Amino acid sequence: MANWLQKQWLTFTPWHLLLLPISWLFLIITAFRRFLYKCGVLKSHNLPVPVIVVGNINVGGAGKTPVVIWLAEQLKQSGYKPGVISRGYGGNLVGIASVSPESSPSAVGDEPVLIAMRTACPVFVGAERVAAGLALLKAHPECNVVISDDGLQHYALQRDVELVVVDGVKGFGNGALLPAGPLREPKSRLATVDAVVSNGVASNLNALATRPLIEMQLNATVFYNLVHRQSLSAPVDFAGKTITAIAGIGNPDRFFNQLSAMGLNFKRKAYNDHYQYCAQDFENLETDIVIMTEKDAVKCTSFAQPNFWVLPVSAEIDVQLMAVILNKLDKLRS
């Protein structure tokens, strides 16, 4: 259903006209809600350390998690001690919880587990970002900056830096707000953020020149085995074998295209974003190799088979982004 909606939001057809009045109402409600926070009618709270929000104005995945992982590493290299908070989307947790690489994705969400695994930073999840941030800082007082994974529209949490991630291929779909289109907020919201990160070539986003527009590329070269993680393979090692690639992410085609560019021939199986896998999903697969994303892999670890291979990706982002962020953080220090 989610993937079907994403495709519908790429175009504008007569049935979208029926939804436009609801989209206009949604715009009024969201604008009024933000106004209430700005005026102090609705209370927002700040944390005792700077907060960097990595979010988007679209529904669906745009590539925020690789940006969060990259940002955490860059901040550590710059002398900061970051912590990460997240809503834990896809998990069934009630309340606040610390996340480790061994945490259950069904409880805390797949992306927080992946972030904890890749960054070795403190990670806390909770629907209330302020409470999650305070719990993180209480448990880890050494943290001197907090990254909020998503939460651009969570105005109860005050923020010092706002980054918006945009899918360079899909852009803003048909440009309409929910439910006629994929936007949570109008494109004009981008004029108020500190930087826009385009996941892929940003040729369709040049109109956003009012803020730094920075391209990100997701690089991948080798696979690791989900059972024996020290075992690595290159694409050539899968030659002559049947392959099934699975993806339960915001843009499965991006992953599949990446595999094709590596010279692999495979059968595709796309699932909804944050899909919770079980062993039965793989029982009838007649294939030599199963390839998946790291986000999928954290949910398949408990029933992994020796033919499960994972393709980790690393974000490559222009250093201009860190210059923008560090400049803002330096001003807060002074």
How is the main sheet built?
9 strands, mixed
Radius of gyration: 20 Å
Class computed from helices, strands and strand pairing: alpha/beta
Number of helices in the DSSP assignment = 9
Distance between the termini: 49 Å
CATH architectural type of the largest domain = 3-Layer(aba) Sandwich
Question: What series of H and E elements makes up the topology?
Answer: HHEHEEHHEHEEEEEEEHEEHEEH
Spatial strand arrangement across the major sheet: 3-4-2-5-1-6-7-8-15
Classify the beta-strand content into a percent band: 15-25%
Total strand segments: 15
Instruction: Output the CATH topology of the largest domain.
Output: Rossmann fold
What percentage of residues falls in helices of 4 or more residues? 25-40%
Tell the overall outline: globular
- How many domains in all? 2
| CATH class wording of the largest domain | Alpha Beta
How would you explain this protein's 3D organization?
It is a single chain. β11 (243-247), α7 and β12 (267-270) form a beta-alpha-beta unit. The strands form 2 sheets. This protein has a 9-stranded mixed β-sheet, with helices on both faces. A 6-stranded mixed β-sheet has the order 10-9-14-13-11-12. The protein has 9 helices and 15 strands. The N and C termini lie far apart (49 Å). The chain is an alpha/beta fold and 334 residues long. The longest helix is centred in the N-terminal third of the chain and has 26 residues, at 14-39. The mean pLDDT is 94. The protein has 2 domains: 2-217 and 316-333, 3-Layer(aba) Sandwich (Rossmann fold), CATH 3.40.50; 221-312. The protein has helices at residues 2-8, 14-39, 64-77, 105-108, 110-119, 129-139, 252-261, 294-297, 320-333; strands spanning 51-55, 82-86, 97-99, 123-125, 145-149, 161-167, 195-199, 213-219, 223-225, 232-233, 243-247, 267-270, 289-293, 308-311, 314-317.
